[in-house]
Write a structure and sequence with these properties.
Layout: H1 21-40, H2 45-49, H3 60-79, H4 105-125, E1 132-136, E2 142-146, H5 147-173
Antiparallel strand pairs: 1-2
């Protein structure tokens, strides 16, 4: 099957073995992003929507939508103060990215790729890893996060969800791997 989510294992970028801090952090983040795409490659819409690990409601498509929201939240909203309301909300305004039973894979992956690209642009434009992003909680408390912290958190976020994706994929068709 050829689809918009195809990514050969050989296409995953290896992080630099002796790069500077920025190159290492962005290299690991791009490797984790590519690993997630690899986990989704070659699956049908039904497989991407499937929730094979009941009682969990996780699906690869729900994870895709979640990762698009996470990219948007940390890079657009916190790092760049764009104030974007998010992509998938329910009728009460709450995040609904995991409600993916009827979701369109093309739309989800297009949003995810666009958010990854936008995040890369924002990181490339930052003068240093010490640049601060700001988050204001609903209670009014403001927290500052350095770009260094955001990149490290995003690596952790993807690594955790890649573990989920690996289990989902194994249950869908037996494919395993890093």
């Amino acid at each position: 099957m050829t689809d918009a989510y195809e990514l050969a294992d050989a296409a995953r970028p290896e992080p630099p073995l002796a790069g500077g801090e920025l190159a290492t952090l962005t290299g690991f983040l791009d490797f984790q992003r590519a690993t997630f795409a690899w986990k989704c490659a070659g699956l049908s819409t039904e497989q991407l929507r499937a929730r094979p690990l009941l009682p969990s409601t996780l699906s690869l498509l729900g994870l895709t939508r979640h990762l698009a929201e996470v990219e948007l939240g940390w890079f657009r909203n916190i790092l760049n103060s764009e104030g974007h309301p998010g992509i998938w909300r329910d009728s009460n305004g709450r995040f609904a990215e995991f409600a993916a039973d009827e979701a369109d894979p093309e739309e989800a992956f297009a949003h995810w790729r666009a958010e990854c690209d936008h995040a890369r642009e924002l990181v490339a434009a930052a003068p240093s890893l010490d640049v601060l992003g700001h988050y204001r909680a609903p209670d009014g408390k403001e927290t500052e996060y350095s770009l260094r912290w955001i990149l490290t958190h995003m690596i952790e976020e993807y690594a955790r969800h890649n573990g989920h994706a690996d289990l989902l994929r194994e249950h869908l068709d037996g494919r395993t791997g890093e």
